[in-house]
Specification:
five-stranded mixed sheet, globular, alpha+beta, 303 residues, 36% strand, 19 strands
């Protein structure tokens, strides 16, 4: 890793296949060092023991993070039946056992109740804030925290494998804010057998999938080779569902200073979110209203 304290103004997306045993924040730190970037952030935390797609934004790309965090995410996870733990995954202490094991039919009959608009209570060991403190800090101090239920959209949930009576594999696609550990815990309670997550891998987050991801070790190799920047994806990558409005240099200049510009686009409806570009590069995000583009966020300064 580079030791220089002088950071570079580098912008774009890099997709990491996060390994187990490291926090998402630590991955961001190591990737930021590899690029020697001024600014970096991720689009959705993975637990330390979880693996898979972790989308990282550098520089101006951090301003498009919400378009990834708000998108659907897909997970594959193994569930251990017959045990509940303090953390709802294998890292916690076992606090209860059950000898009952549901049949595949019983499991498949229970799954539909977790699809669609549901409510779930986050694990006690989670990053949810309670009066300014993280729930996991309170739980580690032995406090029994009470967390409010949260709404979650589950696009799909299915059992894909059962390797033995104690273990099933599920695949879920859900919206923002979903806790896979809560799904496993609640499914175990519904089935009357108890359960916790014993392996978790994120397959997709928004438009980014595992096929786009580089192992963290490979990123470090590429940094040493001096070719890492060739894997950087454009700032505009997550904006595939938004209309692009091509601007003139004069219009771009106005947008950069937060001023609306007149745009005649028949295919855009009022109050539609759009992004403006100059020579293919993003200038700003905004809303189209009554023939004018009103910038809500300046993303990059044109040169």
């Amino acid at each position: 890793m580079r030791s220089s304290t002088k950071r570079h103004d580098i912008s774009g997306w890099i997709i990491v296949d996060k390994p187990a045993g490291i926090t998402s924040a630590a991955v961001v730190h190591r990737v930021r060092q590899a690029f020697n970037a001024r600014k970096a952030g991720h689009a959705g935390t993975l637990d330390p023991d979880a693996t898979g797609v972790l989308a990282l934004a550098l520089g101006h790309a951090t301003k498009t993070i919400p378009f990834v965090t708000d998108a659907l995410k897909t997970y594959r996870f193994a569930v251990r039946l017959g045990q509940s733990t303090t953390t709802d995954d294998a890292s916690g202490d076992i606090i209860a056992h059950s000898t009952f094991r549901p049949t595949n039919v019983e499991i498949n009959n229970a799954i539909p109740s977790f699809i669609g608009d549901i409510e779930q209570i986050p694990p006690q060991f989670s990053a949810v804030r309670i009066q300014g403190k993280r729930a996991y800090h309170l739980a580690r101090d032995g406090q029994n925290v009470t967390l409010a239920a949260r709404k979650l959209w589950v696009e799909d949930l299915k059992m894909t494998d059962r390797r033995d009576s104690d273990h099933i594999t599920l695949e879920m696609t859900c919206g923002k804010g979903g806790y896979v550990r809560s799904i496993a815990r609640d499914l175990g309670e519904k089935l009357g057998c108890l359960a916790h997550v014993c392996d978790l891998r994120r397959l997709r987050t928004g438009i980014f999938s595992l096929s786009d991801a580089l192992p963290l070790s490979r990123i470090e190799e590429l940094e040493r080779e001096g070719t890492l920047s060739t894997y950087l994806r454009p700032i505009e990558s997550p904006l595939t569902n938004l209309v692009e409005i091509r601007c003139t240099p004069r219009q771009a200049e106005r947008l950069i200073h937060g001023n609306p510009v007149t745009i005649h686009e028949k295919q855009i409806t009022d109050n539609e979110r759009v992004w403006a570009s100059l020579n293919g590069k993003i200038v700003a995000l905004g809303t189209y209203r009554h023939g004018r583009l009103h910038p809500s966020r300046v993303v990059a300064v044109c040169k």
